[in-house]
Design the sequence.
């Protein structure tokens, strides 16, 4: 097996009784994960693939085999296509915006200003506040009649007929969700901050000598150097953008008029509410999974055009 | 400072804050242009932080109003000056959500899950980082691939499994998975372990330490930043988790805080926003406290590993 290039790791074969003992230790140490894989990830994944070929509701147990019926129904289901459109629209909007926003803020917060450590903490705080209370807060902020945003806009002189209805307006609903997700930039921003600090200063010095302005330095030095990290966060952003649920459930319940009918919400509805056909929910989940993989594969394919890896041959 | 333009020519250049990057202490800036740059940056950062924290300030302000007043325009922003702060909202909100039950439950789930996350991820990551065995790389690839599978795909079978075992409507489904290793934490800790030179393990080994001793005395103390990350991440996730309690918990006595907060939403309008905001702010407090307590490991740690060479 190939040797790791990372310090502190060695090639994975060794010989003799000591080697057997080492291997034993290895398997003992990772046994929790192996058990977990069987119980909570590999097992359920395979089981759900099987279950997607069944009809499974709480009343009739065991699930009855229906073959590809669920998939057949799905591709004719207008709600499915609507949900798919909503979810991909959200991904296409939110991933570039959130990655760009976090990078932008990391660049700004990287500058040496007095008290910058305090600012970084403040900018990080919104991202640890998540979940139901935040969703409800946003609901209040974006309320069309009494909410904060429209109140401010009205005070700034925007006539009330032009005030967007935010979450009550099918056109604005997904963009509003994107804005809400931008508030959670803190985690990725922290990682960008760390990687920006790792860029060697000689590069900046020589660029300064050649007369490069600050912006050019950022564009030609900083961004390419941290592009692997941007890529990493981009992939994570894609994966998580397909899993929007809490805001859709708490605030809009998939509305208005299915404008925020995200896939995970649809799956939840099909599995755990009155519609209950868990087989169909599983089929939906698998289709979502495949689409997610497609987006990720596309991102990997595109990376050679803009991601710069310094030492490693890819 | 003098810089070389070519092998024979030198030039004296004023060392601006920008040209020396991170090495120049702040107060040695030499020209006005830098001053303007720094000034506008500070303004931007300050302004930005107001925008960001505005929603939180808004929550505070609303939590101190009476029920009718939360909706009134023009908005009143200054409790005590523009209106009387209703501190009793907090008591009322907490009573409404039955805070003793909710927070006991949430604490139990969050703390036990956090413990499980750390313990299992440390053990598994240690195995991957320090021990050689056939099939190790394959298994690690498998670990990473599970990161790609969304939770939703595993959800239904997991739910069915737990309910057939009679564990639905208990805390088991919320706590158990954490004790079996989360791929993200394993990956993170494994990367951190591999930054420590193997020679340290080996010298401890020569002194007679067994593998667990090495883990506890040599490796873990150097991994503190990563451990802080795992702790904060796990606790925050479990504290705020809405989806899994929603699915598994049915009885009100087992509700976690996230579920209790959603109970504030009235079906037909008339949601008591002032109470909701108060309860939400109280809910955030433990997370902020934990973050402040651990942040010196956290931010410094990530910075340290970010430095190259």
Sequence:
């Amino acid at each position: 097996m190939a040797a790791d290039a990372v310090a502190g790791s060695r090639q994975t074969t060794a010989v003799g009784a000591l080697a057997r003992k080492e291997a034993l230790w290895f398997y003992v140490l990772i046994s929790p994960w192996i058990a977990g894989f069987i119980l909570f990830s590999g097992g359920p994944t395979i089981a759900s693939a099987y279950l997607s070929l069944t009809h499974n509701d709480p009343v009739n147990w065991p699930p009855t085999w229906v073959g590809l019926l669920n998939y057949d129904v799905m591709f004719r289901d207008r709600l499915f296509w609507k949900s798919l459109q909503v979810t991909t629209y959200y991904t296409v909007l939110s991933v570039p915006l959130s990655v760009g926003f976090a990078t932008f803020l990391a660049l700004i917060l990287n500058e040496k200003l007095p008290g910058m450590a305090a600012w970084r903490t403040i900018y990080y705080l919104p991202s640890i506040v998540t979940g139901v209370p935040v969703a409800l807060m946003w609901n209040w902020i974006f309320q069309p009649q009494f909410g904060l945003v429209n109140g401010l806009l009205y005070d700034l002189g925007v006539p009330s007929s032009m005030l967007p209805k935010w979450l009550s307006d099918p056109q604005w609903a997904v963009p509003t969700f994107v804005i809400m997700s931008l508030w959670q930039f803190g985690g990725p921003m922290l990682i960008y901050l760390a990687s920006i600090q790792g860029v060697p200063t000689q590069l900046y010095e020589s660029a300064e000598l050649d007369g490069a302005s600050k912006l050019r330095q950022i564009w030609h030095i900083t961004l390419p150097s941290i592009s692997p990290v941007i890529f990493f966060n981009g992939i994570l952003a894609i994966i998580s953008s397909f899993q929007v649920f809490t805001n859709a459930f708490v605030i809009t319940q998939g509305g208005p008029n299915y404008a925020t009918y995200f896939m995970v919400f649809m799956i939840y509805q099909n599995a755990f509410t009155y519609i209950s056909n868990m087989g169909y929910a599983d089929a939906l989940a698998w289709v979502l999974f495949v689409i997610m993989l497609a987006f990720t594969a596309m991102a990997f394919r595109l990376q050679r055009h803009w991601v710069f890896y310094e030492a490693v041959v890819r | 400072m003098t810089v070389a333009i070519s092998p024979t020519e030198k030039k004296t250049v004023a060392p601006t804050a920008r040209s020396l990057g991170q090495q120049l202490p702040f107060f040695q800036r030499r020209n006005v242009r830098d001053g303007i740059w720094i000034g506008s940056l500070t303004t931007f950062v300050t302004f930005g932080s107001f925008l960001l924290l505005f929603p939180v300030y808004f929550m505070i302000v609303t939590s101190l109003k009476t029920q009718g007043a939360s909706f009134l325009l023009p908005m009143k922003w200054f409790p005590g000056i523009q209106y009387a702060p209703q501190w009793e909202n907090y008591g009322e909100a907490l009573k409404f959500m039955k805070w003793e039950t909710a927070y006991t439950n949430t604490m139990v789930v969050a703390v036990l899950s956090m413990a499980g996350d750390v313990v299992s991820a440390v053990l598994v990551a240690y195995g991957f980082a320090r021990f050689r065995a056939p099939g190790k790389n394959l298994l690690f690839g498998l670990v990473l691939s599970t990161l790609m599978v969304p939770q939703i795909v595993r959800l239904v079978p997991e739910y069915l499994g737990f309910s057939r075992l009679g564990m639905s409507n208990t805390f088991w489904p919320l706590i158990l998975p954490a004790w079996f290793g989360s791929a993200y934490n394993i990956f993170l800790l494994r990367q951190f372990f591999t930054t420590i030179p193997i020679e340290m393990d080996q010298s401890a080994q020569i002194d007679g330490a067994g593998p667990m001793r090495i883990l506890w005395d040599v490796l873990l103390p150097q991994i503190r930043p990563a451990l802080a990350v795992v702790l904060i991440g796990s606790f925050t996730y479990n504290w705020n988790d809405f989806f899994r309690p929603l699915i598994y918990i049915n009885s009100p006595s087992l509700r976690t805080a996230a579920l209790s907060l959603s109970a504030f939403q009235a079906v037909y309008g008339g949601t008591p926003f002032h109470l909701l905001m108060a309860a939400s702010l109280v809910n955030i407090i433990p997370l902020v406290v934990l973050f402040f307590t651990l942040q010196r490991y956290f931010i410094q740690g990530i910075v340290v590993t970010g430095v190259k060479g």
